[in-house]
Amino acid sequence: MLRGLLLSLGLSFSLGACAFVDFRTAERLSQLSPLNTDPSGVAVYLDLPDGLQVLPGSAVLTFGAVRTDTGVEDFVYYTLEDIQADDLRGFRVAKEDHPMFRGQQLRLRAWEAAYPDATNGTFSVNAEFCTIDGGPAPGALASVFVQYEEGGTLNPLFIDAPVTRVFDASNIVTMPPCSG
């Protein structure tokens, strides 16, 4: 079912970052309905340390569902646009994709209404990371913020979490170098 889907920030976070989670933001995220949320409002912002960046073009939102009774799927992978706020790099569904996103919301809401027990959905944000000059320094910190409406407050999801607790240390070592 699509009701009560949690926005999954699939940014390769390890369980060690749980101690740095702002549970108010996590709770609010869990209440977002991907079937009704305005795509123009929600954005994810990252405060990454020197030596660590999001690989250009890799931030993707996956939205869709499968009907388990028929096997019919409706999945779209939206490449997220790169935005800035308060010196933070952020990502959101591009304005030109809003009509397609809203159309998909309508289709999936119809599935959910007609076949609630046979509709299984996905809504996640994923990104790949790369390193600069060998990666972040030992003890480097990272933060993640969520914005629920365009121009709204940036709500902390992770605040000043050690990078080695946010990412599995072996993942940092194997991250590709950023080009350019």
Total number of strands: 10
Radius of gyration: 17 Å
Largest sheet: 8 strands, mixed
Cα distance spanning the termini: 43 Å
Share of β-strand residues:
35-45%
Which class best fits the helix and strand makeup? alpha+beta
What does the model show?
The protein has 180 residues and is an alpha+beta fold. The protein is 20% helix and 36% strand. The protein is built from four helices and ten strands, in the order E-H-E-E-E-E-E-H-E-E-E-E-H-H. It has an eight-stranded mixed beta sheet. The chain has a two-stranded antiparallel sheet with strand order 3-8. Strand 9 and strand 10 form a beta hairpin. The longest helix has 17 residues. It is elongated. The N terminus is likely disordered.
Features:
disordered N terminus; alpha+beta; 180 residues; two-stranded antiparallel sheet; 4 helices; eight-stranded mixed sheet; 20% helix; 36% strand
What is the element layout, followed by pairings?
Elements: E1 8-10, H1 23-31, E2 43-47, E3 52-54, E4 60-67, E5 73-85, E6 88-93, H2 98-114, E7 119-126, E8 129-131, E9 141-147, E10 154-162, H3 163-166, H4 169-174
Parallel strand pairs: 1-7
Antiparallel strand pairs: 2-6, 2-9, 3-8, 4-5, 4-7, 5-6, 9-10
